[in-house]
Amino acid sequence: MATAGFGKVIVEVRANEYTSRRANPHVPFSAEELGADAAACREAGAAIYHFHAREPKTGAPAYDVATYGAAVRAIRAAGDLLINPTLGANTVPDPKKRAAIIPALARDPATRPDLAPVDLASINVDPWDPATKRFLVEDMVYATSVAGLREIAATIRGAGVLPQAVLWNIGSARLLGAFVEMGVLAAPVCAQAILSSSLLSTHPATVRGLTALLDFVPTRAPIFCTIGNGGGNLLPLVAAALERGAHVAIGLGDYAYPELGAPTNAELVREVARIARGCGRELATPAEVRGLLGVA
Predict the structure, then answer these.
(1) What is the model's pTM?
(2) Which of 107, 218, 229, 236 would you call most buried, defined as having the most Cβ atoms within 10 angstroms of its Cβ?
C-alpha cells in the first residue's frame, strides 16, 4: 500500500449520498446541516468529508453551482477537513456535464474542493434485496467510457483538484493501473474501494470481498486506499482493512447503522477511532493527509 510508513488511519466521511432519512433522521441535506455535521466529524477525528449536494427541504439531488458552493463554504467554515463533493454519479449520464461542477466551483478559492471522485467502472447499480429475492430497481446503469473517464480526470486536475479514483470491482482496480501507467492519474494516487451488501456489481462487504479487491490495487505507484461501503455495516471490516494497509470511508450515506440506534456521522467516526486505537493506531489529521497527498 502507498501508505507504508504512514502509520495513522485516515477517515473519510461519506455524509449523505442520495440517502433518505427514513432509516436515520441524522442524514444531512442542507448546507447548514452539512456544516454542522462536518464540524462534529472533524472533532471526532475525520480528515476528509464527502458529500452530495441536496435540496435543503426535500433532500432531492441538486446539481447547481450555488447549492454545491453553499455546502463547500459551510463545510470549510467548520474546520480544515479536505472536501470531496460528488459529481452526481449515475444521475448525470454525460461525463462532460458530470465533471463541469468542479471547474465551476474552483473559480472561487472559497468553494474550490480538494478532491473529486472518478468512478472507474460501468456497472449495474440495481440494489438486490435477498429478503424479498428481488431487485429494488432493474434499469439503473452507471456507464462511462474510458474516453469519458480520461476527460473527467483531466477536467478535475485542470481545476487544481486531486482526482479520487473510485474502485467498484477488480476491473476498476486494473483500469486504475492502466491510468497510472498512462499518466491519466498521477502519483500520489488517491483511491477508494467500494464494497456493498446490495450492489451485486461490487465486491461483497466481507473480508473475502475486501481482500480480493485490494489484491488488485496497483502497487507501482503510491496508492492511498479507503474502504467505502455502498450498503451494509462497515464496522466489522475496519480492523481487517487496517491490517491490509487500507484506511476507512464511512457514513450515513451508505448505511443507517441501526445496530447503534440512530447514530450521527460523528458517532461513526468515533467508533472507527475506537477500533483503530484498539489496533494501536491513531487517526490522521487533515494537515497530515494534505501532506501525504500533496494537496495544498
Answers:
(1) 0.96
(2) 229
